[in-house]
Amino acid sequence: MSIRHPVLASSPAPRRTLLAAALLALSGTAAAFSPTVVNTNITEADVRSAQEGWGKALIQISEDHASGGLSKAKATAGAVLDAAYGYNMGVVLFKPTLAHGQQTFRTTRAGALAYFVGDDKTYPDDTGFALKGWKKYEFKNAGVFINGDLALTQGHVMLTDKQGKVTVVDKTWGFKKDEKGQLRIVLHHSSLPYQPAK
Amino acid sequence: MSIRHPVLASSPAPRRTLLAAALLALSGTAAAFSPTVVNTNITEADVRSAQEGWGKALIQISEDHASGGLSKAKATAGAVLDAAYGYNMGVVLFKPTLAHGQQTFRTTRAGALAYFVGDDKTYPDDTGFALKGWKKYEFKNAGVFINGDLALTQGHVMLTDKQGKVTVVDKTWGFKKDEKGQLRIVLHHSSLPYQPAK
Amino acid sequence: MSIRHPVLASSPAPRRTLLAAALLALSGTAAAFSPTVVNTNITEADVRSAQEGWGKALIQISEDHASGGLSKAKATAGAVLDAAYGYNMGVVLFKPTLAHGQQTFRTTRAGALAYFVGDDKTYPDDTGFALKGWKKYEFKNAGVFINGDLALTQGHVMLTDKQGKVTVVDKTWGFKKDEKGQLRIVLHHSSLPYQPAK
Amino acid sequence: MSIRHPVLASSPAPRRTLLAAALLALSGTAAAFSPTVVNTNITEADVRSAQEGWGKALIQISEDHASGGLSKAKATAGAVLDAAYGYNMGVVLFKPTLAHGQQTFRTTRAGALAYFVGDDKTYPDDTGFALKGWKKYEFKNAGVFINGDLALTQGHVMLTDKQGKVTVVDKTWGFKKDEKGQLRIVLHHSSLPYQPAK
Questions:
Q1: Quick one: which of A57, B122, B123, D34 has the most CB atoms within 10 Å?
Q2: Other CB atoms within 10 Å distance of the CB of residue C107
Q3: Would you tell me which residues 85-104 of chain D have a C-beta closer than 8 angstroms to some C-beta of chain C?
Q4: Which pLDDT band holds residue A19 (cuts at 50, 70, 90)?
Q5: Distance from CA of C170 to the nearest CA of D (A)
Q6: How far is D67 from chain A (nearest CA, A)?
Q7: Which of C125, C149, C194 sits opposite B192 (nearest CB)?
C-alpha cells in the first residue's frame, strides 16, 4: 500500500515517489488531484523489484552458506521466508523445482525451509536447493498479469552456480502486496524444462 | 484493463502508453520486463479522467438541452448512463443530490435517467438535474482510495450555471474499471452541504 | 482473511465455519476440495456484521457518555476508530452528517474523533455526534456491491435517541477487510435527507 | 459476477441461489439484508466447478477426436479456449506439461490450440495433448488462495487414458471471474513430477 500525504512528504516511499514524479511530468497537475491518495495496487515496478529480491536472496543464502555454514544459511533462509513469502497469510502454494511425491507441495513454512536448506528429518530427500553455490540469476518473463494487489508472472529463470553451470527452470509466481506495501510470494511453481524423448 | 503486447504496438492505448513511457524513462529497461503485461488496475490518471468525463457529460447534457430540447438531452443522458455508469453490472449505489423520500436511491438506470432529465411520471419530483444550464465544473478531492479495479473519491464539486451561480456539493464516487478498460460509476453519493442553524 | 486448515480445526472462525458448514450441507464433499483454503474476500455476512457493529458502537459511546462522562466516551470512540475505521491504512474518506465548510471531510483520525465526541478546539463546531443519547439503530440497505476485499453499501440509517426521536440519514459505506479479517470503514458519507421547498 | 435482485428472481443463477439459500437457512433474515446485492468475488464452489469443467473439457476433446476426427476435436478445443481461458483478456500465462524450449510458454490462443490438438506447423513438436484418449480425471488440491475475482489452486491432477494408464501432473491454476460470472484460466502451469536420480 502506498500513501501520499502532505504531512508524510519527507517519509521514504521511493517507488511511489518515482511514479508520482513521472505522472507529474506527464500531466503537470498531478499534485492537485488530491491531497491524499492511498493505493493498494501492485505496479510493474513492484513486481520487477520482488523478482530481483528473490534472486538476490537465493544468492545470499548460498553465500552465507559458504561463509558461515549451515546455521548461517538457515537463518538467512528463514528471514527470507518471513519477509518475502506469504506463510503469515495462511498458506503458500509452493511447488519447488525438485520436490516430489508426497512432499511435492510445500504449503507450510517448515516445508519451504527444508527445501531451501535441507537438514530436516521430516523431509529426508531435501538437500538444500539454496546451498548449491548460486552466483547469478536472470529472469525472462513470458507474461505478467496484474490484478489488484496480486500479480502473476511466468517465464524462464536462469541460475548460474560457482562452476558456471546454468540451470534453467520454468517459473510461475504469484505476489501479493501486504498492508505494509511488501510483496509476498503466495504462489510459486518451479519445474525443470520438459525433455522430449529423442 | 490495459494490455501491452508487441503485436499490438500500433493499437491505441493512450493512458497505458503514457505510463509505460514514463516508467521507461525512469528505468531505461521497462521493455525487457516482459513482452506482455496485462494490468486490470485503476490508476490515478484513470480516476482523474473519469471525473473530468463526468463533468463534461453533465455540461453536454445541459448544452444539448439548450440546443435540441428535451429529446436531445434525454438521448445524451442515456448514452452517458450506458457508457459511464455501472447499471450493466447489476446495480449502482446512487444517491443523487436532490432525490429524497422513497425515491432517494436510484439503483436502476430508469431512476438515474429520471433524475438527470426528469420527464418520468414514476419520479414526479424529478425536474432534471442536468437541465439546469450547467456551464462549468470543478473538483476538489479530499481523498482518493484505490483498491484493485475499484477507486473511491470524496470531495467537493463546484458547478456553475449560466447565471454564474455556483452550487457546491459534497460528492463521493466509486469507479470500477470494466473489462474494456472503461471506468464505470458504481457508487455515487451527492449531498448539499450541511447548513448549521444560526 | 479467512483460513481453513486441518491443524487449525479447533481455532475459532465462526463466520467461515458457518459458511463452510452450509456449503458442506449443499455439496456433501466440500471438505475434500482442498486441505487448505485461504480466502481474503468479504462476504455478505461480514458486511452485515460490520454494519451491526457500527450501530452498536455508536450506542455504546452514548451509553458510556451517560455513565462515565466525556472521558469515558472519548476512550470508547477512540477504540472504535482504531478497531473499525481504516485510518491505519492511510486515509478514510469520511463526510460526517453534520460536518461542513472547510472541515467537511474528516480524512484523519483526529477529525473523526472530534466529530464523534467534540471537545477539540481545532474543530470548534463539533458538539459530539455520538453523545446525542442514541438508543437504537436500524439499517435499510438499498444496495450492496461486493468487490474483492472491499464492499460498498448505501441506504437509510434510522437512529433513535432517548426521547424516542428518530433521525434518518442517507448513508454510504465502504468496508475493507484487513489482513486479520477485520472489516474497516475506509469510506463513509452520511447526509441529512434533502428537504424540497414546499 | 452474481446479482440478486427482486425483479430477477426468476432468472437462473444456480450457484448464487444455492449460497443465498444456505445463508438464509443460517440466518433466517438474509433476504432483508438488501434488495440488491452484486458480488464479483470468486467462491470455492466456483473454483471447484471450473476445475471440473476443465477435466470434462479435456475428456470431451478426446472423445470428439475418437468420434469425429481431428476437425471435430479442433473445433471443441477452440470452443473450450474461448469459453474457459482468458485469451480475450490479453494474455494467458500458460506453461503446458510437455511444451519446451522456445515454445515453452503459450501466451497466445494459437499456441494453446496447437498444444491441445497439434496440427500446426508453427509448433512442430506438438502432437496434441488432448488427443491422447483421456477417459477420467481427478483433482487433489494442496491449497487454494482466493483473492477477489481471482483464485489460485495448486495440486496434483491424475489423468487416466483408455488403456487405464494414469498420468500424474503437478498443476497450478489461476482463475479470473469475468463480467458474466464465467471463470477463465489466466494462469496454468503444468509439469511432470520431478524424478530424482536413483
A1: D34
A2: 23
A3: none
A4: very low
A5: 15
A6: 29
A7: C194
Residue of A nearest to C177 (CA): A179
Burial class (CB within 10 angstroms; exposed 0-12, middle 13-18, buried 19+) of B51: buried
Write the CB contacts of A79 (distance below 8 Å, at least 6 apart in sequence). Answer: none
Chain A residues in contact with C35 (beta carbon < 8 A): 107
Over residues A32-58, the mean pLDDT reads: 95
Interface of A with C in 41-60 (CB under 8 A): none
Q: What is the mean pLDDT of residues A106-124?
A: 98
Whether D177 contacts D41, CB under 8 Å: yes
ipTM for this model: 0.87
- The verdict on a CB contact (< 8 Å) between C1 and A38 is no
CA B111 to each of CA A3, B78, B120, B191, D53: distance values in angstroms, whole numbers, following the listed order: 37, 11, 9, 17, 39
Which of C91, C99, C196 has its CB closest to that of B145? C91
Q: Cα D57 from chain centroid?
A: 8
Confidence (pLDDT) at D197: 84
Closest CA to A5 of B148, C109, B19: C109
Residue C44 has pLDDT above 90, yes or no: yes
β-pair partners for B92 = none
In the structure grid, which three cell numbers stand for residue D124, read together?
512442430
Q: Which of C99, C101, C194 sits opposite B99 (nearest CB)?
A: C194
First to last CA, chain C: 50
Question: How close C75 comes to chain D (CA, Å)?
Answer: 31
pLDDT at site B50 = 98
For residue B150, list chain C residues with Cβ-Cβ distance below 8 A.
147-148, 150
Q: Is residue B37 over pLDDT 70?
A: yes
User: Alpha carbon of A95 to those of A104, D28, D98: distances in Å?
Assistant: 6, 43, 17
Shortest alpha-carbon distance between residue D61 and chain C (Å): 25
Q: Model confidence over B160-188: pLDDT tens digits?
A: 999 999 999 999 999 999 999 999 999 99
Q: Which of B23, B47, B48 faces A22 most closely, judged by CB atoms?
A: B23
Share of residues in chain D with pLDDT > 90 (%): 81
pTM given for the model: 0.89
Q: What is the pLDDT of residues B74-100, one digit of tens each?
A: 999 999 999 999 999 999 999 999 999
Neighbours of B13 (CB within 10 A): 16
State whether residue C1 sits within 8 Å of chain A by CB. Answer: yes
Averaged pLDDT, A87-113: 98
Nearest by CB to residue A90, choosing from C5, C89, C91, is: C5
Residue B187, chain C, CB below 8 Å: the answer is yes
pLDDT tens by residue, D116-175: 999 999 999 999 999 999 999 999 999 999 999 999 999 999 999 999 999 999 999 999
Mind giving me the DSSP string for chain C?
Answer: -EEE-GGGTTS--HHHHHHHHHHHHHHS-GGGT-S-EEE----HHHHHHHHHHHHHHHHHHHHHHHHHHHHHHHHHHHHHHHHHB-GGGT--EEE-TT--GGGS---SHHHHHHHHH---TTSTT---GGGS-EEEEEEEEEEEEEETTEEEEEEEEEEEETT--EEEEEEEEEEEE-TTS-EEEEEEEEEPPP----
Does B23 contact chain A (CB < 8 Å)?
A: yes
